[in-house]
Amino acid sequence: MHMLPSVWPTWGGDKWGLTVTASSYLTPDAGSTTLQTAAEFLAFVQKQNSSVKENGVWIVTTNPDAYSEQEKSFLTEVIAVCVKRKVPLFIARGSQLPNGWKRYDLAIDTSSAILILSFSVPSVFSVVNCRVYPRRRHNANC
Fold this sequence. Notes:
With 142 residues, this protein is an alpha+beta fold. It has one domain (2-117). The chain has helices at residues 9-12, 38-47, 50-55, 69-85; strands spanning 2-4, 17-20, 33-35, 57-61, 89-93, 102-103. It has a 3-stranded antiparallel β-sheet, covered by helices on one side. The protein is globular.
């Protein structure tokens, strides 16, 4: 999934939020969609088969300044859902791929989860060519 800020859809016609691209490892009805609420996110995750659920959700973000308070709040809600439902959740800045993944479903205080959107980054960055593929299940030390 990619976390698209609201400024991007005006360029490409897509909605802001968590974008999902159809893939062979997702359920056939998953299609390409954009999730904008924690309820939509949870419903999407619950539809997936067990191997996808075990591998978890992988979200790529961009420059923190690109996100509105509403979008940051949405990501915090997604993290809270993953903590509550024990859904493995990994988030990385596109500029830090492939080694920047951090695990967030084990967080105790979800208010600190917004840190993923607040660390410093290079001023030039593009997430256009990033793709997220399923990985093996990781341990809690990720």
